[in-house]
Amino acid sequence: MKVLMFAGSLRENSLNKKLIRVAKKILEKSTDAEAILIDLQKYQLPVYDGDIEAKGIPEGVLKIAEAIKLVDAIIVSTPEYNGSISSPLKNTIDWVSRVKPMPLEKKQILLMGASPGGLGAVRGLLHSRAPFEKLENFVYPEFFGLARAHEAFDVEGNLKDETQYERAQKLISAFIVHGQKGL
Fold first, then answer.
1. The predicted structure's pLDDT at residue 183
2. Which of 10, 75, 152, 172 is deepest in the core (most CB within 10 A)?
3. Which region, left, alpha or beta, applies to residue 159 given φ > 0 means left and ψ of -120 to 50 means alpha?
4. Which helix (H) or strand (E) holds 108?
5. Would the CA dihedral through 75, 16, 96, 135 be positive or negative?
6. What is the H or E stretch that residue 4 is in?
7. Residue 153, φ and ψ in degrees, nearest 5
């Protein structure tokens, strides 16, 4: 099983980029799935605009779409923006949905999120389900929210709290088993 992983954040030192790197290590250590980690910042996606689309879908969008075509599942770690989906994640979904044939359907999706607040991006994760479900993906019913994430990582980027690590490990492993059944 191949799994594409990315953070729904562009910031270099994003808490969600830290969390998705932890998730990648867990996936590689705890499952037989192959992880492919990408950074949305490197694709330089413009804000979705039909006028831009009319001139041709940007190269960065096509590269992300190609990466999605090659995988069975996607794990996203995303912040919440004002209690909702992050704009980089929504923009990525909107652009990729314009590629024909549309690669973002029938994929297994696991949502994770990290936030310095007490809710761990949970409100944003709930909103992030909607576009994936609209595009006929299978969004795993459980998700992982990491509260007070600005205090959660050590200097090497590992989760300090063993309980949080074990919770993430259990969820990712269950997601992979579930996803393999769906193939």
1. 60
2. 75
3. beta
4. strand 108-114
5. positive
6. strand 2-7
7. -110, 145
Tokens of 55: 């001139």
Smallest Cα–Cα separation from 120: which of 160, 164, 156?
Answer: 164
Residues 21 and 165: their CA atoms lie apart, in Å, by: 12
Instruction: Give the type of residue at 90.
Output: K
Peptide bond into 101 cis (omega under 30): yes
Tokens of 87: 């704009």
pTM for the model? 0.95
> Which is it for strands 80-81 and 84-85: parallel, antiparallel or unpaired?
antiparallel
Q: What is the mean pLDDT of each run of 10 residues along the chain (183 residues)?
A: 97 95 96 96 97 97 98 96 93 98 95 91 91 96 95 95 96 93 70
- Cβ neighbors of 56 (< 8 A, separation 6 or more) are none
Give me the residues paired with residue 3 across strands: 35, 73
Q: Is 41 helix (H, G, I), strand (E, B) or coil?
A: helix
| b/e sequence 90-102, b meaning 16+ C-beta within 10 Å | bbbbbbbbebeee
* Structure tokens belonging to residue 172: 């990712």
User: Reduced to 3 DSSP states, what percent helix, strand and coil does the chain have, rounded to the nearest 5?
Assistant: 45, 20, 35
Both tokens of residue 101?
């044939």
Strand partners, 74: 4, 109
